[in-house]
Amino acid sequence: ETLDKGLEKTKQNVFSKLARAVAGKSKVDDEVLDDLEEILVTSDVGVDTTIKIIHRIEERVARDKYVSTNELNDILKSEITALLTENNTGSNSDWVLPEHAHPYVILVVGVNGVGKTTTIGKLAYQFKQAGKKVYLGAADTFRAAAVEQIQIWGDRVGVPVIKQQMGADPASVAFDTLQSAKANGADVVIIDTAGRLHNKIGLMNELKKIKDVMKKVVPDAPHEVLLVLDGSTGQNAFEQARQFAAVTQITSLAITKLDGTAKGGVVIGISDQLKVPVKYIGLGEGMEDLQLFDKAQFVDSLFK
Ligand code: GDP
Predict the structure, then answer these.
(1) Which residue of 9, 194, 255, 272 is 20 to 30 Å from 244, comparing CA positions?
(2) Interior CA angle at 293 toward 292 and 297, to 5°?
(3) Which pLDDT belongs to residue 215?
(4) Ligand 1 centre from 230 Cα, in Å?
(5) With contact defined as beta carbons under 8 Å apart, do 87 and 278 qualify?
(6) Is the CB of 186 inside a 6 Å radius of any atom of ligand 1?
(7) 3-state helix/strand/coil string of the chain
(8) pLDDT single digits (tens) 246-293
């Protein structure tokens, strides 16, 4: 899906309320700001980020004495753009990988059901389309279905999947994957992990071990620790993001299922609160329904 189409619900159900809030008013006053606050909170931008945005607009109103409601959209757009954390882990206009990293290693974390496997499959597809040699590692050895699902995506996209039997040591799978990938001159390696948030110490140790073992094959790996979040769960996604950030260092986010949800505002809040860039967004179930996140494009789509 296209970004505009994918964000349609968020736009319609939420950001168009803004138009109603200012209808018939020429000046941004306390009432408009109250309405705006409610709109942002109910669109899953999150309370803290909403307060931040409202404060900035209040400051502007106090400074300029008069802010017309016609300007409000543009002000909001620029404030939201400023809050979105810049992606500095690579180009955002193309599926380009940093040259210094070979292979480029992405460790993928997230709880079950958020679209982790699908995102890995879509990433594999995009990188393959971009002419890269991709390897996948099935290090979520906790669930047999997880390994099967990764294999299905590997077959669909046409990239190798390195796996072991269920219950195997995830770090050992990661090690095997990196060794095979390196020996075969792979450009990018994407490793799935089990996201068992209910056992935080276990998860923390497991991820640490995987990272340590990776370095034995590729010294600066992982280059990216990607947390996958389900955007349609709104505040739950927020909570998961906080919990994962406490367990391991997250360097990028993929927010899935933005198609068909009105909770797209969650992208703004999570990016602001975590100070981690949203790098990818999921806009459907198909292989091609993953986009590199471009904050200007995203904000433009929301306010179009
Ligand atoms: P995992 O358990 O986290 O690995 O989740 P899966 O990758 O198996 O995805 C769970 C469900 O969400 C599947 O039915 C996917 O097709 C669906 N899904 C994943 N990403 C997206 C997305 O961006 N949009 C939509 N609409 N569905 C998605």
Answers:
(1) 9
(2) 120
(3) 97
(4) 8
(5) yes
(6) no
(7) CCHHHHCHHHHHHHHHHHHHHHCCCCECCHHHHHHHHHHHHHCCCCHHHHHHHHHHHHHHHHHHCCCEHHHHHHHHHHHHHHHCCCCCCCCCCCCCCCCCCCCEEEEEECCCCCCHHHHHHHHHHHHHHCCCCEEEEEECCCCHHHHHHHHHHHHHHCCCEECCCCCCCHHHHHHHHHHHHHHCCCCEEEEEECCCCCCHHHHHHHHHHHHHHHHHHCCCCCCEEEEEEEHHHCHHHHHHHHHHHHHCCCCEEEEECCCCCCCCCHHHHHHHHHCCCEEEEECCCCCCCEEECCHHHHHHHHHC
(8) 999 999 999 999 998 988 899 999 999 999 999 999 999 999 999 999
Residue 87: pLDDT band with limits 50, 70, 90: low
Residue type, 256: T
Task: Give the residue, out of 285, 289, 290, with the most ligand 1 atoms within 8 A of its beta carbon, to mutate for a pocket test.
Answer: 285
- Binding residues for GTP are 110-117, 192-196, 256-259
For the stretch 67-84, pLDDT in tens is 999 899 899 999 999 988
CA-nearest residue for atom 19, ligand 1, is 115
Report how far apart the first and last C-alpha atoms of the chain are (Å, whole number): 17
Question: What is the pTM for the complete model shown?
Answer: 0.94
Q: Whose CA is nearest to atom 28 of ligand 1?
A: 285
Question: Nearest C-alpha to atom 26 of ligand 1 is from which residue?
Answer: 284
